[in-house]
Amino acid sequence: MKSKLLIIGAAIVAAPLIMSFCGFYVSKADGTLKNKTSQVILVRDGNKTVITMYNDFKGDTKDFAMVVPVPVVLRKDDIKVVDQSIFQKLNDYSAPRLVEYWDQNPCNDYEKSEDKMSAAPGLNEVSVTRSLKGKVAGVKIEAQYLVGEYDILILSAKESGDLKKWLNENGYKIPANAEEVLEPYIKSNLKFFVVKVNEKEKKKLNNNFLRPIQINFNSPKFMLPIRLGMANADGDQDLIVYAFTRKGRIECTNYRNTNITTDKNVPLFVQKNFGAFYGNLFTHQWNNEDKSVAFLEYAWNVTPINQMKCDPCVGNPPTEQDLVQSGVWWLGGKDWSDYSDVDNEETDNGSKNVHFTRMHFRYNRKSFAQDLMFQVTPNTQNFQARYIITHPATGDFNCDAGKKYLQDLKQRRKKELVQLTALTGTNINNWQDDAAAVNDEEDVAEVQYQTLLPEVKNDMDREKSLPGAMILLSAVLLGGAGFMRWKGFV
Questions:
Q1: How far is CA 385 from CA 39, 293, 312, 356, 381, in A?
Q2: Distances from the Cα of 357 to the Cαs of 72, 295, 384, 409, 462, in angstroms?
Q3: Strand, coil or helix: what is 157?
Q4: Are residue 305 and residue 411 in the same domain, yes or no?
Q5: How does pLDDT run across 63-101, given as a tens digit for each residue?
Q6: 345 and 379 share a domain?
Q7: Per residue in 9-59, pLDDT tens?
Q8: Is the pTM of this model over 0.85?
């Protein structure tokens, strides 16, 4: 029996997201701006790192600014803006996916087999005109640029209090506890990449969106600062990392790595609200992993000449242009006039391989006390988060094979319902409305989800009570044996 296949694309399905940089917002209003979820593109080879940070800030951009720690003083050529659509493309392609299959009626005298597999904007050379107020001892403006619609400052500081004072004196209302999170970066001799919107340049844009900022630098440390993002966070935060390397997957080195649960058969009605299903699944596994873990959601070789980039694909694979815009510099070949990578861990061997890793973090102050540290590994094993639904066969089932099919379908659907509760950590009763027969595609009532759900509930309740009953029975038997020994019967 053969099945035909169709793919349903899912966006970032964990929850509605508000995108931000991996620093903290500073506001000229009341300091209440929050960052909940981030999307970041990381590109790493040798000692060189390219980071692209996406922002979907809502509100008056006059009140917007960001502070991000960086290891070196960036040159203007190290900073540029890119089209925000690259993030949507990478997400659509690598997101957890739902796969559909169709059963064929075994009573048909034939089998149908039909498979359905189906350059960044230039830098603005206008000089920065925004005036900065007086000097603060211990804070130095290492560089200042205008890049696209952003005024950029690179600051260094000797004390966190000095940096906090400087920001406040220049009209930025920073979080009350910012001094605490700034201090470790200052002690590590990191610089601070301060971003503010240039209103004059912003008016030249065709829309009201702030474009992502991309920076590149050389450093032996492969890390992503997240602690600043907790300074004015509102509860748990999610971070989606899209990483590209030449060798293989990236892994987190200071927190555990685990694969998100995948390749599971789930009830047909999950299709109607896949986002809620995956959100519950992610939260349940995150809780079970003690919340301090890095989840892998996708890993594959996406080298442009490689034809197989997913199985199945949700969206269109990233093109060579998409990869270059993401910061994958080696696709353009070696620039022999550029000596910035002279201290790299390894020489450029000319390889144009591109390995894509999608990682999902949910973090808070308690679970992630440190910034994220990464390493590039030689692991090239493919992985994707995928969940399977199967449509039932239609027609008459009067033949022996058809009757056997209905029996198997009933057992399969009961297993799907049990699987659903195990994956999401929810009570079976929560799915009563979703399992309504009106949403089913099966005409035979005895194998409809709504009919099977009470049976599954009874089976699960019986399994839960079985250990207690066994303990009680054991106690009775032991007590009886003791009584008979006391009476001298044994």
A1: 18, 16, 11, 14, 14
A2: 26, 11, 10, 37, 42
A3: strand
A4: no
A5: 777 888 999 999 999 999 999 899 999 999 999 999 999
A6: yes
A7: 333 343 333 334 444 444 443 433 344 568 899 999 999 999 999 876 666
A8: no
